[in-house]
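Review form for a predicted model. The reviewer records the input and the model, then writes brief findings.
Reviewer: anonymous (R2)
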Amino acid sequence: MKNKLRLKYQELRTSLSLEEIEEKSLEIANKLLELPLWEHEFYHLFLTISEKKEIDTEPILHILHGKDKNIVISKSDFSNNTLTNFLLTDTTVIKKNKWNIPEPTGGIEIPASKIDVVFVPLLAFDEKGHRVGYGKGFYDKFLAECKKEVIKVGVSLFEAEKAIPGLLSSDIALDFCITPRKVYSFNK
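Model under review:
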């Protein structure tokens, strides 16, 4: 069931031009400014896998830099599907791994418990804040390690599905999701 949604949204992404992705990414970044989440200190941001036509997170990065926030990025461990988080600094070296994920090669490690806001990558989401990612569970494991009050913000090039079937107890819902046209708020 989730696999059908994964395929549908991967195909939709593939159909977008790079100009459309840039335009939608900028609209999403501008909509983020409407959210009440800018008084925090540590913001986790994923870096774009351009080969998968993901949202371009560069405009969000610029907003965070402009607001003088601590930006945290991850390195993926595919042996156990976990993320190790590092502070993004002027000296951070970023290289693509064999899955084309841009990652820090090392640096100052930041525990998940310190992170206040997480921008969550996704393929699809529903009107209740449930999301479908690539299916490895990296972010559900990572979010489970974060403090209870961490703010989870999905970013999507497309609007919400009515409902996502086949949810697991380990699936962690979003607090917000931003699309080019709308800010979704999921107050539980």
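Findings: The chain has one domain: 2-185.
Further findings: The chain has a mean pLDDT of 94.
Recommendation: see findings above.
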